[in-house]
Every structure is written in C-alpha cells, then in structure tokens.
Amino acid sequence: MQLEIYNYNDIIVEWISYDQFNDIKELGKDELTTTIYSAIWKDGSLNYDENKYEYIRNQNIKVNLKSFHNSQNITNELLIEIKTYFNGENLFGISQNLETKDYILVLQNIYCDKYVEWIPYDQFNNIKELEKDEFTTIYSAIWKDGPLNYIMEYYDYTRKQNKKVNLKCLHNSQNINNEFLIEFNRYSTRFYSYNKFKIFGISQNPDIKDYILVLQNVYCDKCDKCFTDKYGIWCKSCQINDIEKNITNWTSGNEKIDNLIQEMRLKINNPYDIVFEWIPYDQFYDIKELGEDEFATIYSAIWKDNPLQY
Ligand SMILES: [Zn+2]
C-alpha cells in the first residue's frame, strides 16, 4: 500500500500500535463480524505540509476503529476487505487489540460528531421555501442557537449561533410512520459516503404538526440551487462567475493564450481544483535559476499574491 502513493494528499497507510488510542467508545456492531469504535489517535496521521514540503503529524485526531471478531488468523476475506478500504481512500492503517488479538482497521472518522437533538420550531428565523415534491418540502432557515460543535482542545461542546440549515418537512407525518423513520435513518449515524448530508436534529411545525428533519445547508446562497460538489459546500456556476469577477481586466496580450486560460478554467469541477490564471511577471520575486537545457530555463520564485483558494 505504501508503494501506491501517487499524490501528496494520499493517505500513508501504516501499522499503528494499539496504545496510540485514547477515549475508545463503541459506536455499534456493523455486521455480525465487526464492531466499530471511535477513538482519539494520539500521534495522528501523516499529512503533507505544502508550505514546509514535508510530512507532519496531525495529533489527537478522531478516528474510527473497525475491529474484526476472531481475526487472529488473517483470512483472505480480511485482506480483501482491507484492500477495499484502501481504494476508498479513508484507511489510515492497521492495528491489533492487545488482549483479544483481533485485527483492527483504523479509518477516518465518518460518524456524526453531533448529537441529534430536539429543536423547537421557534428557533428558526428567515424560513424560505427551496423545493417541494409530493412528500417533502425543503426550506432554508437560520437556526438561532445553532448546532453543538465539539472543541477538541477543551473536550467540550459549544454552539455555533445563527447557523444556516435546511429544514426537510415531511408531509402528513403527524403520526410518526415508517416513512419518517426510514428518512431519519438515512441521515443518522450512517457513513458520509452513503449520505453527504449531516443531520442536526428533529423539529415540528406547531401549526400543521408535520415533523421536520434539520439538516446541513446544501443550497447555494446566491442561486438557491443545490450545491454541486459531493461535500455539499460549493456551487459550480456561482463560483465560476465569482472567479471571473475577481480576475477582471487581465489579458496575456495573445488571443491563443487567453483562450487556453479560459478553457482551463471551465474544467474546474470541485472546490479543490486549481484556478488557472494569467500571472503578470511583476508578481514574482526571489527568482533563482535552477537549471537549463536547450529549450528552456527553470527558475524558482515566490508568487506574491498566491493562488486563489476556496
Ligand atoms: Zn449558486
């Protein structure tokens, strides 16, 4: 697995000794054969620091431990499962319970950190309808008190006030029925990979008595359409408009180069893609020659303004 690192942000899979884990809590039994825990990994994962050009550890990160019952003998099934997780890009490493000798996959924390809570309807301001079908209406709203956030340094929760959320109102749900429970289960304590939307709580419209799921906001402020990336934080058309507004009055002085830059910019597809642009030469200082061949010379330089980042 360590040989399959192609990219600076690929996870480096490693052996992690069991005494590296604190605060181990059982979250549930996933299948008959495994148990999932949350834990704090003391040393934390290796991450490439783009400014220091080296790997550093992110200490005390929350991880999930997936423990395989009776896995003292490594079977082919276990190896296949490990490889599946590796392809899913969220495996940090492998460990072993010192007492039971069970093997453990150390995974990115994908369980909801927040308590699902009851939120009184008068907590919501600025309620605005976004979408409606036969079964549900989705609103945006401002939640006055806001969700509980876990602050790692203090081992404590604080509230993020005036948080924008989505309200998913389930029509005719006055009697908690199966549809309500199915909807609720879709959002609660499930893997993010199955479901990109986080649930904060449940509320009820006091007039019509419909139940409401209070969810992470995934609608764009500007165009009211659903965000386009898989993390639910980015609207492609609005952000590309924004980039065009931010980078005005540029031209390379050559139509072919200008077109090439425009073309590259249209390829932006997620919030982490690089915004390709024309950079005037006076943006560079500390220019040092590194080497040359027949066709080109390579320099290192400091770019004053730095690239655009979302
Ligand atoms: Zn938008």
Outline:
About 15% of the residues lie in helices and about 35% in strands. By secondary structure, the chain is mainly β. The strands form 5 sheets. It has a 6-stranded mixed β-sheet with strand order 1-7-8-6-3-2, covered by helices on one side.
Q: How is the CATH topology of the largest domain named?
A: Phosphorylase Kinase, domain 1
**Fraction in beta strands:** 35-45%
Bound molecules: zinc ion
- First-residue to last-residue Cα separation: 31 Å
CATH superfamily of the largest domain: Phosphorylase Kinase, domain 1
Please report the first level of CATH classification, the CATH class of the largest domain.
Alpha Beta
Put simply, the count of helices is: 4
Structural class: mainly beta
SSE layout and pairings?
Blueprint (H helix, E strand, L loop, with lengths): L13 E2 L5 E11 L2 E8 L3 E5 L4 E5 L2 E8 L7 H12 L3 E6 L6 E6 L8 E2 L5 E9 L3 E8 L4 E4 L4 E4 L3 E8 L7 H10 L11 E6 L6 E6 L19 H11 L8 H12 L17 E9 L4 E7 L7
Parallel strand pairs: 1-7, 9-15
Antiparallel strand pairs: 2-3, 3-6, 4-5, 6-8, 7-8, 10-11, 11-14, 12-13, 14-16, 15-16, 17-18
